Amino acid sequence: MTLQWSPSPPDHVPAELIVDFDFFQAPEGLNDPVQIWHDLVRRGVPPIFYTPRNGGHWVFLKYSDIVEGYRNHEIFSTYQTPIPPIEPFPVMQPQGVDPPEHNVFRKLLAPMFTPLAVRRMTEGLQHRAQTMISSFADKGGCDFIADYASRFPTGTFLDLFGLPEERLPEFLALSEVFFRSTDPDARAQNLNDIYAVLEELFREKDRNPGSDIASAIVTARDENGQQHPWQDILNCGFLLFVAGLDTVTNTMAYVWRYLASTPQARAEFRDRLDDPTAFQLAIEELMRINAVSNIYRRVTHDCEYKGIQFRRNDRVILSNTLANRDPSVFEDPQTINLDRQVNNHVTFGVGPHRCMGSHLAKREIMISLQEWLRQIPDFELAEDQEQGSIFGGSVMGFTSLKLRW
């Protein structure tokens, strides 16, 4: 099969810009996957380099270049970007479509995720958090990933899409393969499985619409009063499926991991429980320091950037954890300052494709932490952490995080 969007052989890349780097691989003994990236800076590799791993791609290390990769869609497209390359790959709506075409579905979805719309979800989110945490609060410990962090955002997704809670294991399994596997056959089958679920979901909502997001998408009409193309509807559902699950799960894992090992920070958050503004300010800092996503872009045409030759269809990775700790932008960037006032982090991206679900993600994490601290005010890392439980990739994180109290 000919790959229409495959990158060029790296004969246009000078030898001094080639670095052997695999962002999926976490070296043995590493206990924090973000160090996969920060080790590059410590090694002094070029700020823009090319790795032949995973089909070959460029890596940007500096905040300014990462922001340019987000904003300059004329060079760095969101269309057909997977690393390693996979064909065919869904055109996610609106994330996988460049401006101005992306505005069709962005305008459709944006009202569902405004700060006001998300505030209206507060009661439901609080009930979900209270119920889940109370189910293990008196047990003295839990595996935070299995018992809470993976289940809370996925359960929220099911609720927003009007799906029953008992389908949670099915969606967790689909998400696991999508974000972790590098096997081409497994990835291709996973896409088929996800789209089969979405096809069934949207057909049902088309016949029997409700008040959920899936119904709003399938019943929306274009400027001519017609239903949007069916494939675009499925692609929009696909984006919402992959965008709101794993990133929230692993951001939570990092936040709870930090608080479990930092008594002073736990105390500061407890002191802010009745001050939502101060609580949110501290959450923003933890989201800066714990950015878990590495975002893909594809070069649209042969060009020169910062004196380096890029070829059409070259892939680029924008690492948010590197941008958020760039000392040229953030004062004392490796230090967690829960009162940091200027915090221009890129955890949710910037530019035309900035994450529309950012308000929901923040609200999920804030409510979860508030309810957790009310029921479990003090907790720590368990001594028997599972070895090899960390992973790299487009979203970094942990397969297990054992806590005790």
TrEMBL record:
Family matches, as Pfam families: p450
Record GO terms (molecular function): heme binding; iron ion binding; monooxygenase activity; oxidoreductase activity, acting on paired donors, with incorporation or reduction of molecular oxygen
InterPro entries the UniProt entry points to: Cyt_P450, Cyt_P450_B, Cyt_P450_CS, Cyt_P450_sf
Transmembrane segments: none
Entry keyword annotation includes Heme: yes
Keyword Metal-binding recorded: yes
CDD domains associated with the record: P450cam-like
Keywords: Heme, Iron, Metal-binding, Monooxygenase, Oxidoreductase
Family statement: Belongs to the cytochrome P450 family.
Protein name per the record: Cytochrome P450
